[in-house]
Design a protein that fits this description.
There is one protein chain. Helices cover about 65% and strands about 5% of the residues. It contains 5 helices and 3 strands, in the order βααββααα. The longest helix has 27 residues, at about 80-109. The chain is globular. The protein starts with 10 loop residues before the first strand and ends with a helix.
Length: about 110
């Protein structure tokens, strides 16, 4: 999944949910279910996601939505095989980003 977010230090839950095409409630649910998601909260309690959180969300989205893992299966994958799976996922993400850029270039021709 190719996600387009501007380079920022923190992202609000609304813009993260919009980038993934899901409801904010799903992001909050995943935050409770997966220990790797720890967004910072400001004084009002608004969640602020770092680029690392977004990277973890991409991986969770990939496991649950694209590969069809159950939540328990995704948690196991994150704990046991995180390094190998994350390396593979990062490679796939970079290739999808390149593909997205090439498609944009093609449309402008």
């Amino acid at each position: 999944m190719y996600i387009e977010l501007p380079d920022k230090r923190y992202y609000g839950i609304g813009e993260v949910a919009k980038a993934f095409g899901v409801n904010t409630s799903l992001i909050r649910f995943w935050e409770k279910e997966f220990d790797v998601l720890k967004p910072k909260k400001n004084a009002k309690g608004n969640r602020k996601f770092t680029p690392e959180d977004v990277k973890n969300l991409k991986f969770i989205y990939h496991l649950v939505k694209e590969r069809g893992f159950t939540l328990e299966g995704a948690k196991t994958q994150l704990k046991e095989e995180k390094k190998q799976a994350l390396n593979n996922f990062e490679i796939i993400s970079k290739l999808e980003g390149i593909k997205g850029q090439l498609i944009k270039i093609k449309e402008h021709l």
